[in-house]
Structure formats: structure tokens, C-alpha cells
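User: For my dataset I need records formatted as: sequence, then C-alpha cells, nothing else. Please produce one.
Assistant:
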Amino acid sequence: MASPTTKLNRTPLALIALVAAACNVSGSGFQSAPISPAPVTTPLRFLPPDASKIDTPAGTLVDDGCLSLLADPLSGIRLTLVRSENGVGDYAVPGGAYGVSNDQLLRLDCNTGAVLGVVRR
């Protein structure tokens, strides 16, 4: 039989494990790390279709958060923002462009439009 002291020591550990499990529940929440690096077929960065959203000469994107629409400057493929957090945004890619599947999103740096990798939807 466990002593009362042993039961008290296990309670905080069980609570920590429960909180950690809740934080790792998969779903549509923001994923912290890309599951794969940026596809080699993407441009170095995506830009807003409206050139006034680019701060020159710094070249950064103008807005307090992630822009909801960004485009490939060469092909014109447009990406739509799905979610964002802490200066990065996860964007839907149309029609499997760049090898990104329907269950994946392209992660971009919101300040520069640079590609950071591919994440789960």
C-alpha cells in the first residue's frame, strides 16, 4: 500500500502529464514545427498582389499580422492564409502546387514572405 506521501508526490506528475497531453492534441491547431523543409520549387518568397503592401527599401511586408493573400511573383499562384501565430502563417496551396498535398500547408514568415517549410493542415 502506498503511503500518503507517495500519493501526494504522484499528483503533480499526473497533472503535468495531463497538461502535456492536452497541448499535444492534434487537429487544426497551430503546429510548432514544419514536417518537411521548403519545397525546392517554391520561390524564395511570396509577395502580396498589391505592391503597396511591400515596404521599400527594406522589402518587408506591411501589416500588423500575416497578409491573407500572397502570390508567387513568377507563376502568379496565390496562397490563402489559413492560420497564423507568432509571426508565421500557414497558407493553403491550390491544386497541389509545389508538391504540397491537400492535407498540408505551406508555412511562411509573415514579415518577409519567405518559405519556412510544410506543415500538417
